[in-house]
Amino acid sequence: MIEKLQHKFALSREGAVDMVKACISVTVTNIVLMASAGILYLLISDMLGEGLRTERIPVYVIGGVSVLILIYVTNFIQYNATFLSTYKESGVRRTVLAERLRKLPLSFFGKKDLSDLTTTIMSDCAMIETASSHWIPELIGALISTAIVGVSMFFFFDWRMVLASFWVIPASFLLIWLSANAQKKAVRKNNGVKMELSDGIQECLESVRDLRANNAQDRYMSGLETKIRNVEKHALFTELKLAVFVNSAAIVLKLGIATTALVGGALFASGEITLLTFFMFLMLVSRLYDPMNITLQNFAAIIATDVQCERLDEVLSHDIQTGAEQMTNDGYDIEFDHVSFSYSDDTAVLKDVSFTAKQGEVTALIGPSGGGKTTVSRLAARFWDVTGGTIKLGGMDISGVDPETLFSAYSIVFQDVTLFNQSVMENIRIGRKDATDEEIINAAKLANCDEFVSKLPDGYNTLIGENGSELSGGERQRISIARAFLKDAPIILLDEATASLDVDNETKVQAALSRLIKDKTVMVIAHRMRTVAGADKIVVLSDGVVAEQGTPDELLQKNGIFAQMARLQTEGQNWSIA
Ligand SMILES: Nc1ncnc2c1ncn2[C@@H]1O[C@H](COP(=O)(O)OP(=O)(O)OP(=O)(O)O)[C@@H](O)[C@H]1O
Ligand SMILES: [Mg+2]
Fold first, then answer.
1. For 24-45, how does the pLDDT look when each residue is reduced to its tens digit (9 = 90+)?
2. Are 483 and 422 in contact (CB under 8 A)?
3. What is the model's pTM?
4. C-alpha span between 571 and 578 (Å, rounded)
5. What CATH number matches the domain at 359-371+409-573, 3.40.190.150, 3.10.20.70, 3.40.50.300, 3.30.70.260?
6. Helix or strand (DSSP H, E) at 506
7. Which among 508, 382, 387, 381 is positioned nearest to 444, based on CA atoms?
8. What is the pLDDT of residues 52-107, one digit of tens each?
9. Quick check: CB of 74 below 6 Å from ligand 1?
10. What percentage of the chain has pLDDT greater than the value 90?
11. How many other C-beta atoms lie within 10 A of the C-beta of residue 242?
């Protein structure tokens, strides 16, 4: 049962055990509360019958005090099992989720967008939190205690009265249960439009500069407004749908008062039950139906949480990239062996790509935009797994190596550098977390960062704003190069690493890079001929296939794509704004 609960509500083992404890304590609390009504019943029937006898008083006092103590104890257990462990549990759940996200292949993030995942981590978890801490234990506790009370009344009092007052409970729950699918559908749709809106807002904030530059603000804003209206419409619709079912169930529940009064009246008139029994059932239904009404709402909410649980389960049960934690490579040659790849199932981005990037050599990937250069460099570090063929590092198939172990061999400088809202020092330290300040400053000097960092108000301790928003493109890229210097890994992947540097800086960084890449396996993606002129090998990727490969001289003689690109760029250098 524990395993089922774990799976159903995305709980840890401890969380599922706590949920069972909470259910039991809610049940006991409810029964104890009802037992107090039983004591009251005995007291009244004593008083109405033979009058209150003094020798019975201690029994009532002891009974009353025990009930109070029991209520205190069960409430305490309930508090521990629900509130306290829920917060522990939601902490555990979010950590498990984050741990899982860390191990998921990047292809997963390609399919899911950021706001979707943020929603899962924040609001889906919060929803499940409330469900497992309140709704579920309260629902189960209420059902079990009501069933126990119903069954005991069935035996000790009149069974017809029990039927007349209890029939509405299964009937109203059935009504909500029958609406489950319709509800889930509405919630799913509602989630969808909410996600579209949060995507839109995020996109708007990220691209505010481009929107302004293109005078597209108004157009974009009206699109956002439609999304907001959509969310409003669907939220109302979902609430309305829910309200129809919950209110109908509540009306069914209220019918119980009428049937209890009718049946009770008839049985009392024919002398089959006493006035006290009749009165007690009337008391019972008025006490029972109000909490049942809340329980019905909880039940409906629990049904809706299923959607959140499914979303969470999708992340938790997605295949992660695993592999050996020991590398068995011999050297650091990277060999692409008939590699094919597609981001999604339909279009192949790489087709039968074979080449070797040798250790100690610079292999330049060039070719027209969209040809697959960035994809090749991502695959080389197992950001994605290939669709066909193999990629070997020193003879070892990288698809069998744990990505984190594999990454230790790579230093990567991307086209788009990610910086964190921390000091320059900490941003460079990402390259190697145990590096000393001196080592960081050395790496920064090698990457030509020193000069601009010394102009910042706090030097290396200056905070650089969210994603380095206070730095220029070239500066950001130099920080990223400094990270690579610091990491000093045997393989270097550079994706247009020097693209946003001015000529002066580029020359300096190039000099530093040639120091860095000595004896290493270097794969560089470059558009500029100057960057690739010194390469040992050039691989021309066009439309996902290797169109040409060889030394620069060989390719120039071949007079193919590379020679043409070289010619175009030389012409381009003479280009100017007339
Ligand atoms: N995350 C992704 N999901 C789906 N398709 C992608 C993704 N990234 C790239 N592509 C597609 O794969 C193809 C190759 O892209 P890639 O980025 O490797 O080209 P590139 O040679 O690096 O281009 P550029 O010179 O413009 O940087 C393109 O058609 C691109 O649209
Ligand atoms: Mg690219």
1. 888 888 777 777 777 777 788 7
2. no
3. 0.69
4. 15
5. 3.40.50.300
6. helix 503-516
7. 508
8. 677 778 888 888 888 888 888 878 877 777 767 777 777 787 888 888 888 887 77
9. no
10. 20
11. 21
Find out whether the beta carbon of 371 lies less than 6 Å from any atom of ligand 1.
yes
Task: Please report the atom of ligand 1 found closest to the CA of residue 378.
Answer: 18
What's the CA-to-centroid distance between 373 and ligand 1, angstroms? 8
Q: What is the DSSP letter of 471?
A: S
Handedness of CA 244, 247, 252, 258 (dihedral sign): negative
CA of 371 to the centre of ligand 1 (A): 7
For the CA of 106, the nearest atom of ligand 1: 1
Q: Which CATH class is domain 2-316?
A: mainly alpha
Question: Both tokens of residue 305?
Answer: 């949480």
Atom of ligand 1 nearest to the CA of 110: 1
Q: What token pair was written down for 242?
A: 């829910």
User: pLDDT digits over 526-567, tens only?
Assistant: 766 666 777 899 999 999 999 999 998 898 898 888 888 888
- Does ligand 1 have an atom closer than 6 angstroms to the CB of 374? yes
Residue ranges near ligand 2 (ion) with Cβ within 5 Å: 374
Instruction: For ligand 1, atom 27, name the residue with the nearest CA.
Output: 369
Which alpha helices (H) appear in 49-178, and where do they start and end?
Answer: 57-79, 85-103, 106-111, 114-119, 125-130, 136-156, 159-166, 168-178
Cβ of 373 less than 6 Å from ligand 1? yes
Q: 417 C-alpha vs ligand 1 centroid, how far in Å?
A: 17
Strand 362-366 relative to strand 537-542, pairing: parallel
Q: Quick one: how many helices (H) and strands (E) in the chain?
A: 24, 10
Question: Among 108, 343, 496, which is best to mutate for testing ligand 1, by the most ligand atoms less than 8 A from CB?
Answer: 343
Every domain range in the chain assigned CATH 3.40.50.300: 359-371+409-573
**Residue 446 and residue 512 in contact, taking contact as beta carbons nearer than 8 Å:** yes
Q: CA–CA separation, 131 vs 187, rounded Å?
A: 16
Domain with CATH 1.20.1560.10 in the chain: 2-316
- CA 495 to ligand 2 center in whole angstroms: 7
**Residue 399 per-residue DSSP state:** G
CA distance 378 to 384: 7
Q: Whose CA is nearest to atom 2 of ligand 1?
A: 343
Q: Which ligand is nearest to the CA of 373?
A: 1
- What distance in Å separates the CA atoms of residue 150 and residue 146, rounded to the nearest whole number? 6
Which is the closest atom of ligand 1 to the Cα of 365?
Answer: 21
Give the pLDDT band (50/70/90) at residue 578.
very low
Q: What's the gap in Å between 372 CA and the centre of ligand 1?
A: 6
Q: Which atom of ligand 1 is nearest to the CA of 367?
A: 21
Nearest CA to 10 among 257, 420, 306? 306
